[in-house]
Design goal:
Shape: elongated
Number of helices: 10
Number of strands: 7
Order of helices and strands: HHHHHHEHEHEEHEEEH
CATH architecture of the largest domain: 3-Layer(aba) Sandwich
Number of domains: 2
CATH superfamily of the largest domain: DNA integrity scanning protein, DisA, N-terminal domain
Largest sheet: 7 strands, mixed
Oligomer: single chain
CATH topology of the largest domain: YojJ-like (1
Strand order of the largest sheet: 2-4-3-1-5-6-7
């Protein structure tokens, strides 16, 4: 009898552990989905799909046969529609998922962040255009290999300013920071489509690279002499030194 009771409770504990793991995985996947859909564009599309689903329910309830047939055909192909619409967000979600690691090193230290801040503030004062991309978890090796020039040097404000000096041979393109070092310069980045916005090439490149990875991009505008930050495909303009320092320390060095 005691063996039977022990077997019952032992099996109950195994089932409880299995259910706990099952729920934890679902919660994690839902969290990753929320992270991927947190941009206003993705949420707007999701709300549109919810509206169509409600419309389908109303049509079915009121026996509107033609509309019901049309909506049924649409929702039968919904998985393909979702993949097509949310392709950039799904790609970013999978990239973020692959970049998660228990032993991932820091992107930059607080000292490195201070060097970047000082360089950007001075370049903004001098109206020297710059684009600095700080790799986080998703590797940017393909950006470096295609057009970039390897540098592999310690991060310093003087070197960053020299790289972006208008007469320097490597001032065009982006500088990529990785593992606390300047990995490469003159890197060509994918450009985001910015409809209805007055964005230059550097700002579009900053949004483009942060749409495809978890990197943070810092832009210095030579026309306006202002600093902008791009994260998750979104651009934040007219950033002061303290805000830039906070973003670099919290988002990258944590």
């Amino acid at each position: 009898m005691s063996d039977l009771i022990f077997s019952f409770f032992n099996g109950y504990q195994v089932d409880l552990l299995r259910d706990g793991i099952d729920i934890a995985i679902i919660v994690f996947l839902l969290y990753m989905l929320f992270q991927a859909l947190r941009t206003s564009r993705a949420l707007a599309v999701l709300m549109g799909l919810i509206f169509l689903l409600l419309l389908y329910g109303v049509a079915w309830r009121l026996e509107l046969y033609t509309l019901s047939w049309f909506m049924k055909g649409l929702f039968d192909s919904l998985p393909i529609v979702i993949v097509v619409i949310f392709y950039p967000d799904i790609r970013q979600m999978l990239g973020d998922l692959g970049a998660k690691g228990l032993f991932r090193g820091k992107a930059v230290t607080s000292g490195d962040a201070e060097e970047v801040v000082a360089a950007c503030v001075e370049m903004a004062r001098q109206r020297c255009g710059a684009l600095i991309v700080i790799q986080h978890g998703v590797p940017l090796d393909d950006m470096i290999r295609q057009e970039g020039v390897p540098v592999d040097a310690k991060i310093s404000r003087r070197l960053l300013m020299n790289l972006f000096y208008e007469g320097a041979p490597l001032h065009d393109g982006a500088v990529i920071l990785r593992g606390g070092r300047i990995a490469a310069a003159a890197c060509i980045l994918p450009l985001a489509v910015a409809k209805g916005q007055n964005f230059g090439t550097r700002h579009r490149a900053a949004m483009g690279i942060t749409q495809e990875s978890d990197a943070v991009a810092v832009v210095v505008s030579e026309e306006r002499g202002e600093i902008s930050i791009a994260m998750h495909g979104q651009l934040r303009r007219r950033v002061d030194a303290e805000t830039l320092r906070k973003v670099l320390n919290e988002s990258l060095a944590a």
